[in-house]
Amino acid sequence: MNEQNEHTLASSDEEHEVIRACQAGDETAFEQLYRLYSGQVFSIAMRVTGSQPEAEEVTQEVFVSVYKNIHRFEFQSAFSTWLYRIVVRRAADSFRKVKKHIINRISMDSDEHAPVYSLADKGHTPREALVDSQNENTLERAVQKLGTKHRTIVVLRYVQDLSYEEIAQVLECRIGTVKSRLNRAHKLLKQHLEEMEYKV
């Protein structure tokens, strides 16, 4: 992941122990799980909803849901996948309710299968282009114009740095759907950037 919580576990086995303790009703273990993942949950919620108050509310709702439903986690996938699925649904619901279109500090990486926009002629990468604050603000506004579905997949891919396989698990869809949806998001971003006369 690009954004890591400062609290980490030594191994997935240790994480599983914490989860099992949570399932057994251990409040201390749940607090540890919260410390491990609250930062990532907030990060996703913030970028999908575009609002800090909404993201804070979504984060709270997500962990209330986790507390109530963690007994349903069966260790058949990564816990983060199960958790992100809850976050995406809650954040998307929140966004639809408030109809806000603001996103903070999206950091874009190039994608070998479908680049977000062509910078090859000038030898720039997306990260280099974002050095200029005006360009960064323009890119943020372009992402704001995306619908929830495409914005969510951009966040999962470029902010959370999930693989296609991981995104497919989170969104419960096929890898081909992930690629086509991301490709569509790239085209929409390119279109919006062109309309705003994005300069690199």
Show unreliable segments: 1-7, 98-127
SSE string: HHHHHHHHH
- Helical content stands at 55-70%
Mean pLDDT across every amino acid position: 76
- Largest sheet, described in full? none
Q: Give the structural class.
A: mainly alpha
Number of helical runs? 9
The rounded distance between the terminal residues' Cα atoms is 27 Å
* Integer-rounded radius of gyration: 18 Å
Can you give a write-up of this model?
The chain is mainly α and 200 residues long. The chain is 65% helix and 0% strand. It has 9 helices and no strands. The protein has helices at 12-23, 27-49, 52-69, 79-98, 126-129, 133-144, 148-159, 164-171, 175-195. The longest helix has 23 residues, at 27-49. The protein is elongated and about 55 Å long. The two termini are 27 Å apart. Residues 1-7 and 98-127 have low confidence and may be disordered.
Describe how the helices and strands are arranged.
Blueprint: H1 12-23, H2 27-49, H3 52-69, H4 79-98, H5 126-129, H6 133-144, H7 148-159, H8 164-171, H9 175-195
Helix pairs in contact: 1-2, 2-3, 2-4, 2-7, 3-4, 4-8, 6-9, 7-9, 8-9
